[in-house]
Amino acid sequence: MILLVMKRWAMPILIIALVCSFPASGEDQSGGWLGKAIDFYSSGSYELALLYVNKSLDIDPGYPDAWDLKGYILSDLGRYDEAANCFSRSLDIDPSDAYIWYSQGFALHNLERYEEAVECYDRALELNSSDLNFWRARGLALYSLGRYGEAAASYDEALLIDPTQMDVWYNKGLALGGMGKYEKSIECYDFVIKIDESDAASWHAKGFALYSLGRPEEAIQSYDRAIAIDPSYTDVWYNKGIVLSSLERYEEAFKCYAAAVQIDPLYHAAWYNKGLALYSLGRYDEAISSYDEALRIDPSLVATLNNKGNALYALGSLDEALDCYERAVRIDPDYSNAWFNKGVVLDLLGRWDEAVEAYDRVIGIDPAYKDVWYNKGLGLYSLGRYEEAIEAFDFVLETNPENVNAWYNKGLALGRLGRYEEALSCYEEALKTDPHQTDVLNNKCSTLYNLGRYNDSISCYDDVIGVDPAYECAWYNKGAALYRLGMHREAAICYDKAISINASRMDAWRGRGDALANIGEFDGAVESYDRAVALDPGDPDVWYNRGFVLYNASKHQEAVESYNKVIEIDPSYEGVWQLKGLALYDLGRFEEAFECYDEALEIDPSDVSLWYNKGVALYSLERYYEAVECYDKVIEIDRYEKGDALYSLGRYEEAADCYDKVIEVAPLEAEAWFNKGSALQSLGDYDKAGECYDRVIGIDPSYEGVWKKKGFVLQMLGDYNDSVACYDRVLERDPSDIEACRGKGRALQNLERYEEALACYDEIVKVDPGDAEAWSSKGLVLRHLERYDEAVGCYDEAIAINSSAKEFWIDKGAAYEDMGKLDDAISSYDRAIAIDPLDAGAWYQKGLVLSESGWLEEALGSYDEAIAIDPTRGGAWRGKGAIFEGQGKAEDAITCYEKAIEADPSDAESWYRKGSVFEGLGRGKEALNGYEMAIEADPSFVKAWRSRGHLFFTSERYAEALENYDRAVEIDPSNGTVWYERGLTLQSLGRLEEAVESYDRATEIDPKIAEIWYTRGTALDGLGRYDEAVDSYDQALAVDPRDMKSWNRKGDDFYKLGQHKKALECYDKFIELSST
């Protein structure tokens, strides 16, 4: 609050008029007493004056002059109520005295009875409109009533009478300011200052006007002028502090308030604002001391109590803060700020019922109070009163539909009620206002997850990570979604990211363990579980999973120890006794295993697998009769159930054994053979699975699903024609069976019967246009058919169905590569990377295309990204090596090829490239080793045979070179370069006829290489077959008419043939070309 003070005036008293009106009848008469009263009044002896004027009135109560004097005396004594009564008595006697009306107005004015004062001033002006004081006083009273326009008009009238009255100019400025006419008010203050630059009040008031005009720096300058004139002017120090606070210059503001309270230690508003400035500076203890000073002056200052509470809150002293808020509302039960803050503190103290009550008190005082409905909603949410919380958030959203937090928390409440679709809508509304709110995005993703929309949730988590790569929850939750989709390695990578951000996140260690367990990385899984139980030793799930992994890793004793931990925490934990029993059995501790199964059967006596395992344990203890009883119990309960249970647990070998037990009892039970086949299929034993399916078909050729299963295993065995026949049997019965159609399409692809495969995928998308996988498969077939535009269209269809499937973007990129549209290919790979920044394959593919486009530095960057994600990605190391090789950075290239080989010692291409670089460096022995290792890795690798041959050739080891070239053309007879180099080798061995044959094979493959024709000619020259040699040189010159060596050799042959003219023509051509 900024303070301004009106300039008041001292009321002039017309004593002369009173003296002139005395009666002349002696001291005992009223006039005599009045004369004495006037004398005492004139000398400032007001009490004596009052005594004598009262004596006058005792004699003559109807004496108006005595009433007037008594009124003046009482006014000067500050007894304005009595003064007003005196003037009223005088006016009752003589209402025509303008000055007495004015004097009564003055008394009423001081009593803050401004309306009555204005009426008195108006009566005075009716009698005498030319008195400056009347207009001035009327202006002051009107100003106090907030009637600023009328006040300004009164001041104008006063200034018409006397324009030199500085206080009137000043007060007119205040009135204009009250009307918001600050520019005009400044003109008034400037008028005063022009006449009297030392008028501190005008500089002060001008500062206020400038601040109100939004010109704070100029306001400060005005306040500084006022302070320079009067350093003890407390209001100026105070108001300067207000302006500095508004500029967030709290240190300077604090100094101003400190100056104010130093001058006036009882200035509680300054103490209060000093506290606010210190609070803004984070100096909470000092702020509290300032608030305490204000409260020492006036303990009823509720705003001060409230802000003291805020400072205590900032220091974490919640109970003391609460005490302040409660004191404030006891003083003023309608003080909404303190009720609100009380609610906030109660929230933090977990006293949500009381917090909601506090917010309700705020709503009762001011239903539109900012944030109260929102905070009430939070309190209700914490109490689990979700429906009421939703109503509170709805109230917020009615007035502010863009309130992100209200949408967000409403979404949370709906999620708690399982109303996920509505929750999702709330998060989407919040994101319209702030698309980068990570908490909202994360909960949107989690809601998609809860709806089973895992792919969409993964894409959503990628959006969160794009906004904040360090948002651990998004990495963890993305991992959970990937895990749900069976993408366990990708899930593990996400859990790793969450852990790298927060290594104490137990659930991320547990998730990492589960993911690694599912891809068979048992050591890593156990290490993860160990980290998880170190953080929370009381979590039975982690101990259980740890035991399960150790069991599968054949570490049975450690598995038992883990299961013991589970039992210690929860003896009735589902499945733990059985798994402990299995581990003990495998350790040969049959008695203990048997006891475990008994414990498990106490919990669930209908579990056939327990009866079966108990029977196995008893059998191993040679307690055969009891074992038979257990097996009978299995058959009694359900002869299939055990096998099915084991199958669902992924224990396919044991499941197959169970189905064998059924088959022993019922060898013509088609279901048992079918289920056994399914278990064997899951084990990858496709031959035996196929035999089982054949047995099913022998029993019941129409058995549901068997032809489809047989088609699949035949495809896995490479018997694609029979696989197609099986799928056709399914499709004869049900042409709309999408999976059969899909399987047939894959088999036809492998047979390179692409048109027929295309028809299969067309049929699928006709039945189900939303089958993204079918669109993608169709795209691949179209690529084989070189119908690239159509392929891209198919990938677009797949992407439209599921834009978060990175595989579709990668395949689309490959199609663009096929078309030579490298920029489009890069864009597609970028989209895949945006979906999953940890997809090393996408980075690698992007690197290949960038390299092909000549963007070598960018390509290196992409390869580096791939390697950072997966250091064993040999292709990326090889790609880097190729770039370095092309740039002449041989050592860097070799290092990269060695990294690729380290990742995959059977990488023939990298061995070959390494050898090639060594050959370029003249390091033949190391080059030879590279080529030999490439051939060892891939005996059909033509480039290595050829390069090894070339190395021997350049070392003049022609026989060994020939062996390598012979092996190369045996593998690939269509390689013209190898035939050519083989010819050179034969020629070097003097085996010219064979050399010519090799050159002939090379020219058949590519007749447009002049060098081959030329070298063929030289071999024919060696055989003396000059006519044929000339023909060869002509062929070379047809390809390259400027080939000087062919002109020269042709001339030699013509000379040998005696055709000297033609020889000269050839030599002339040779000379002509030589001179250019």
Topology:
Elements: H1 15-20, H2 30-42, H3 46-59, H4 64-76, H5 80-93, H6 98-110, H7 114-127, H8 132-144, H9 148-161, H10 166-178, H11 182-195, H12 200-212, H13 216-229, H14 234-246, H15 250-263, H16 268-280, H17 284-297, H18 302-314, H19 318-331, H20 336-348, H21 352-365, H22 372-382, H23 386-399, H24 404-416, H25 420-433, H26 438-450, H27 454-467, H28 472-484, H29 488-501, H30 506-518, H31 522-535, H32 540-552, H33 556-569, H34 576-586, H35 590-603, H36 608-620, H37 624-637, H38 641-648, H39 652-665, H40 670-682, H41 686-699, H42 706-716, H43 720-733, H44 738-750, H45 754-767, H46 772-784, H47 788-801, H48 806-819, H49 822-835, H50 840-852, H51 856-869, H52 874-886, H53 890-903, H54 908-920, H55 924-937, H56 942-954, H57 958-971, H58 976-988, H59 992-1005, H60 1010-1022, H61 1026-1039, H62 1044-1056, H63 1060-1075
Helix pairs in contact: 2-3, 2-4, 3-4, 4-5, 4-6, 5-6, 6-7, 6-8, 7-8, 8-9, 8-10, 9-10, 10-11, 10-12, 11-12, 12-13, 12-14, 13-14, 14-15, 14-16, 15-16, 16-17, 16-18, 17-18, 18-19, 18-20, 19-20, 20-21, 20-22, 21-22, 22-23, 22-24, 23-24, 24-25, 24-26, 25-26, 26-27, 26-28, 27-28, 28-29, ...
